[in-house]
Amino acid sequence: MILYQGNIFENHQQKHMLKTLRQDCYDTLANEESLSINEVIDACDKLAQQVKSGMYNDLILPLLEEFDIPYDYFLTHLPMFEKPSLLKKVEIELGKDYDAISDLDDENIKKRYPLGILFHIAAGNVDALPAYSVIEGLLAGNINILKLPSGDRGVSVKLLSELIKIEPKIKPYIYVFDVPSTEIETLKYFAEIADAIVVWGGDGAIKAARSMATVTTKIIEWGHKLSFAYATLDASDEDLEGLAHHMAMTDQVLCSSAQGIFVDTDSREELDKFAERYFNIFAEANKKHKPVPYGMKSKNALQLYYEELEAKDSKKKIWKKDGISVMTSDDSKLELSMMFRSIWIKMLPKNQIIHQLKPYKNHLQTVGLLTDNSQFEELKNILIKTGVTRITKGSDMSRIIVGESHDGVYPLTLYSRIVETYKYSEVN
Known about the structure:
Strand content: 15-25%
CATH superfamily of the largest domain: Aldehyde Dehydrogenase, Chain A, domain 1
CATH class of the largest domain: Alpha Beta
Radius of gyration: 24 Å
Helix content: 40-55%
Distance between the termini: 60 Å
Number of strands: 16
Low-confidence stretches: none
Strand order of the largest sheet: 2-1-6-5-4-7-8
Largest sheet: 7 strands, mixed
Number of domains: 2
Oligomer: single chain
Mean pLDDT: 91
Structural class: alpha/beta
Number of helices: 16
C-alpha cells in the first residue's frame, strides 16, 4: 500500500505518484506553514488513546499473539506515544526551550530547524518501527518518505493514516511506499530528494544506503546491533531467571535481545557447570511462554544436529529440550546466536573484556549485567569502554524508558540543524 498526502493507494499506482513526489515535497517546503512539535505531540497522544481504547485491536492483537507479547506488557509501553512522554523526549533531546536557543552575540542569532526531507529505510523486525521512525522525523518538523520493509502487514500505513485524520496539517509531511529493495532506481530517486537517509538494518542495508546517497545526502544509521549478557559465576538465580524470560519473550530477534552469555571465568569446567545451571532455569522459564515457532524450531534442530556431529572436534557441549538449547565452547567470540531460544554461553574473564569486545565497537548495544554489588561498578566501567551504549538487568534488556537514546545518541538532534543569522536592522 501507498500513503500519499493522507490517501491510501494500491501499489500499481506508484509510478504516477513518483512523478509528482519531488514537486510535492518542495511545494510543502515553499508554501506550507512549519509543522509545530505541539501539533505532532497532540495528534500522537490522541492516537495513543484510541489504541488504548481498543479501536485497533484487530491489527494489534494478532501481532502480540504471534510474538508472544502479553497485552499488559504492550500497554505499559503505549505511554511512550502519549503527551507527557513525548514532551519529556523533546525536552531531553532538544532542550526545554527547543525553539529558543541562546544567541551567539548581540548581532547574530541562532535557531533550530528541521533538516528538511528524511528518507526512512525501515527494518522489519518490529512491525510498528517504521511508523515510530516517521513520528520521530515529524517531531523534528521534517517531511518523511518511508520505504516499508518487506513483509510489512499494513500496521504502519494504518497508524500513520489515522494520525493524519487526527491532525490534517501532517498530511503533506508523510509519504509511504511499498518498494522492494530490488527497485534500486526508485530508491536512488528517494535518496536524491532527501536531505538525509535514515536507515535501520544490518551492515548490508547500511552499505546499500551509502551507495544510493549522493555527496549532498546525509546518512543517519541505526544499524543492527549485538547485545549479550555478562555474568559472574555467583549470579543469582533470580537474575538468571529474569534473563531467561527476556530471551524467551523476545526470541532474541531485537537489537537489544541477548544473543548469549559471557561468563567471568577461564575454566571450561566452571563454564559448563554454569551453563547447566542456566539451562535448567531457562527450561522452567520457557514453559511460561508460547512455544518456539515450528519452522524456527526445525531449523535450529538441524543446526544443533550438525553441531552434535562435530562436537568431538569442536569441543562444543549442548543442552537441549522443548525447542530451546544452550551451547558452550572454548572461544570468546561475540556472534549472532541461532536465535529463537538457542543461545551460546562462553568464557570471558573480566581482564579480557576490552581486548575481545572492542573490535566490535559500533556493533555493540545492550549488556545485561548479572553480578553482585561488590563487582558491579568495576564490570560496568570495563564494559562501557568497549563501546556498549546501555547496561541493564538481564530482565530489562529490551525495556523502553522515556528519554533514552538510540544507540547512544539522540535522534531528534540528528534530524535537526542549527541555523545562524545576523540581526537585520535598518540604518537611519
